[in-house]
Every structure is written in C-alpha cells, then in structure tokens.
Amino acid sequence: MSPPDPAGRLSSVRNAARVLKAYSRADRELGVSQLARRLGLGVSTVHRLLVTLTDEGLLERGERGTYRLGLQMYELGVTVFPNLDLHEAALPVLASLREATGESVQMGVLDQLDVVYVERLEGPRTVRIFHRAGHRLPAHTTSTGKVLLAHLPAEILQARLVDWQPARLTPHTITDQRVLLDQLGRVAERGWSQNVEESALGAVSVGAPVRDDTGAVIAAISVVGPTAGARHTLPRHRAAVIGAAALISTRIGYRSGQDR
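Predicted structure:
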C-alpha cells in the first residue's frame, strides 16, 4: 500500500484524470494495453479505471475492446465554456497578438453608441490614443466600435441612431448616417472593420468580433498602429486580429455556425 500523500492527493483520481487526458483528436479510441504502456501503469489498474469511468458515463466501450470519451464528457465541457470569464479567456490571446504584431491591442464592449475598452495592452510602438482600460470613444470612430455596431439587430441600431449627433474627432470621422450604415453593412458581411485616422490622426486600427457560446457578438478586439506603413501592415494585422478574435470566441464556448 502506497504511503498517503501529505497534500491529500489521491493517486487513483490522478490516474483517472491521466486516462481521460490521454484522448485527443488523433487518439479517439484507445485500448487497455495501449493506455497502460502510455501511462506507465499496470494493465489491471488501467482496466479497473476504464471500467469505473465507463460506469460513470465518462467513457464508452468501443469496438475490439477499445474505449472512447463518453457523452458525459461533452456535457461537462458545455458546462465549463460559458463560465470562463471573458477577461481570463482574452488576456493570453491578446498578449500573443501584441507579440505577433508589435502593436498595441485592446478589447472593447458597446455601451449605447460608445465603445468602452475593458482591456488594453501597450505595444512598443504605442500610438497614444489613450493610456488605460476603461476609456471610451464614440463607436463610429473606431474599428472595435464599428464591429459592435454592425452586429446589433437592425431595429436596435436604428433606434439608437434616431438622435445621433456624431462627434467629429478628426477630418476623417464619419458623420453621415447613410455612409455609416453602408460601412456597417460591409463590416457585418466580411467580419472585420478598419479605422484609418477616424479617431486620432496618425493612428490606424483593425478589429474583429468576439462571440459567445450562443453566437452573439459580445465584444471586439483590435490592433492599433501608426499610419506610417499602414498599407503594408493592415492586411497582416487583419489576419492576426481575426484569428485572435476567433480563438477568444472558442475559449468562451463559440462553435462555428452559431452566428446570429
């Protein structure tokens, strides 16, 4: 009999977890001997673990004596994803995006016709639009804001624009409602937006939507950089930000085809 773990850990539970984590897209079904070799455990021990996990619905018996993950694992996974905090899910992805682009990155949410930045990571070539999370800007002047406006239900967007008095932050800011609506339609269709000196001279950005487990757009992220060289950097940053937004969406439960 093995001595008790001073931290109170149970070796049987640890081994059961190791069995479950052995499965992957490449290894959907595994046999007793295969698992025993991979985990360095006895065949009889692995067999008992597999039988117990199968009784609990975490595994299913396959053909030829193999085992695969059971439906109970799927149900547990569905429960976990919506509970992941958006900030917790987004921060490591935003950090990677900053490293990949060398620019500042941010995440915003919509408040009526403003975008409020809830995360911001400074890049080495920071464009000084603002310096902290919690800052807000008129949504129509930013790539994140335009992404969020573009994914509002049409009736809600129209209601919010009834008394719209657009702030002109630069000579390039959109102030014509028809022009804005036309641009938002293109944003919704292609899945990304850009801002070229519309909120601050010398700054460009590109943004993409973050979706929750229902497919609803709940936030947007963007990369912000200098106007100099934007013709070359924007396409590269666009691909990076779309990929990062998709990854954050996946981390909070979104699955392709759930768009709404």
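Summary: Residues 230-251 form the longest helix (22 residues).
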